[in-house]
Amino acid sequence: MDTRTRVAVSAAALTLGLLTGCGDDDAAAPAGPAAGAPAPQATGEPWYDELAPASPSGTTGGASSPCPVPVTFPLAEGWTAKAIEPPKGELAELLGDALTKRGGTTVRCEVDGRPAGGGFLRIWAADSPTVTPRAALESFAAGAGETVAGQQFRDLRAGGFDATEMTWLATNPLVEDEDESRNWALAVQSAGQTLVFAVNEGLITERTDVLPAYRLAVRGLAKGE
Question: What is the pTM of this model?
């Protein structure tokens, strides 16, 4: 990828929400209690387990939802699930798959928390049905063209699933001050797919903006249709 394209990818990634569809999930019934909690519990850097899950408001997931994956999960209050539409026209020619593909995964949907003051939770599916959750996470973290450091892993229960969670620091070489951002992602296997749930701190979002909605979602994972 040449410099012009890398710069365009970096800028466009900040506004990926503009490419999402308008199919918000309208589930009215609040989600039930989370089926399981991650273990072990670790306060402070890098997991921040002391940050409680957000309050639930509906669910999403399943083939007929805006998030067509074989699991369901609760949505945080004020967060909405949207299908991601591929870029078109000149943007598509310039970026290709850069906004929808990453490290052997394809994005399936985005949960937008901007109306509630948060960032984004994105759900990706591994392109290979045989990849393990840890391998999927390693490839995902390395697939953004950033410098990755401080990787840590842990195995835990996520709702009704055995899962692997990863956290890491990423530095974008195209950003002048090269600030590090903290990332978190969790991977599970369901119905022959490996799914990756990912959030990160960004230029305008902090861990307190994204982790509560992420924790709610992954702790309430259940098998979908």
Answer: 0.83
